[in-house]
Write a structure and sequence with these properties.
By secondary structure, this protein is α+β, with helices and mostly antiparallel strands. The protein has one domain: GIY-YIG endonuclease. About 40% of the residues lie in helices and about 25% in strands. It is built from 4 helices and 3 strands, in the order ββααβαα. A 3-stranded antiparallel β-sheet has the order 2-1-3, sandwiched between helices. A hairpin with a 6-residue loop joins β1 and β2. The radius of gyration is 12 Å and the shape is globular.
Length: about 90
């Protein structure tokens, strides 16, 4: 069974956020951390994995990604802090 992940990266606590979806969280988080991904995350130094959710259906994962991207910033910060109050780097499983 393939899993899909919706994830949030941060530049620092309460810093710039990025929301994405992937089927290989460890690989994708590593790419962001190394700066292999051109664009927004590399430009703004957004590389700390602070939140993620797991899905079995890619459609559900994409829908959740879009939902989170539509949220106001305060809701995103609250979501992160509910599961990761110290904004620690999460190790993908």
């Amino acid at each position: 069974m393939r899993l899909y992940y919706v994830y949030i990266l941060a530049s620092r606590r309460n810093g710039t956020l990025y929301i994405g979806v992937t089927n290989d969280l460890a690989r994708r988080a590593g790419q962001h951390k190394r700066g292999d991904v051109p664009g927004f995350t590399r430009r703004y130094g957004v590389a700390t994995l602070v939140y993620y959710e797991t899905y079995e259906d890619v459609g559900e994962a994409i829908a959740r990604e879009k939902q989170l991207k539509g949220w106001i910033r305060a809701w995103k910060l609250k979501l992160i802090e509910a599961g990761n109050p110290d904004w620690e780097e999460l190790v993908p499983t």
